[in-house]
Design brief:
Blueprint: H1 2-28, H2 34-55, H3 62-76, H4 79-91, H5 95-122
Amino acid sequence: MQVLSVAVGGALGAVSRYFLGNFISRIIGSALPYGTFVINIVGCFFMGLIMTMIIERGMLSVAWRLFLCVGFLGGFTTFSSFGYETLVLLQEERFASAMLYVGGSVFCGLAAATVGVTLARLL
């Protein structure tokens, strides 16, 4: 049952990533990998929120952790895409864009996770 929970969550997360990434690219454009950036930041926020609700607040069961964090967010976030897209920017000698993307992703991801943890602690 646990494997099924992770598999279903992962499938839903991957499909959500696909639709949200395409939506963001249509709205903002694709000069930089904005879709991947936004998805990673949103994923960090929800990981912080959900894990704090599970570990510190006891609001969700371990089964929900498997479904939401391992499955859904594992399929939703795009770290492998982030790595490849950064490499492409570097290969294209777009060094400032690559550094902005890496720095922004790390800083905003940590900030989003912090906000998620803080919000969960206030609930």
